[in-house]
Amino acid sequence: MKTLVLASSSPYRKAQLETLRLPFVCASPDIDEFALTGESASILAARLAAEKAQAIAEKFPNAFIIGADQTLAFEDQILGKPGSYDAAVQQLKILSGKTVVLHSALALLDVINNKLQQAVIPTTVRYRTLTDEQIAFYLQQDKPFDCAGSCKSESLGIALLESVTSSDHSALVGLPLIALTTMLNNVNLSPLQAQTTKN
Q1: Do the Cβ atoms of 106 and 46 come closer than 8 Å?
Q2: Which single residue of 17, 18, 34, 36 has CA 20 to 30 Å from 28?
Q3: What's the whole-number mean pLDDT along residues 151-160?
């Protein structure tokens, strides 16, 4: 059976993939994640997801490699990870009462056949109107400095949100598991029939 590889160092995506109960390994890709001039949030996410999978293909010549990336679009800009408490405060103040779109991109690379499946799942998120005190309390609790939008929705961050609209609720965390399951089914690696794969 081919190895299943998650091209990510994200503990959040690793935890998500574990829910499918398929054996896999993690490998961290080394790529430039900056946006190209004029690149939209969805196109950026799709490109980076594919590049992450392709970046480690030489190390895993007999594998299915999962690449994933997520971008956050707010009005006409792409918001990245805050990286610090102060930046997260500013981000949440800007997003308070506002609507954003998260673009969760997924790529599944069949290295031997050089076949790439791709999908981008949009998730529309509206933040509650937040007070300075609520923002400070939340950031002290969750420390979401490595999360675009300064929100860990799988933790206390869900309390920041007023509504979430998506065809794949798992996309909000960063790895769209419904879309991934479809891709895995396409290569006979169903999570529901893991032992019967012919690959």
Answers
A1: no
A2: 36
A3: 95
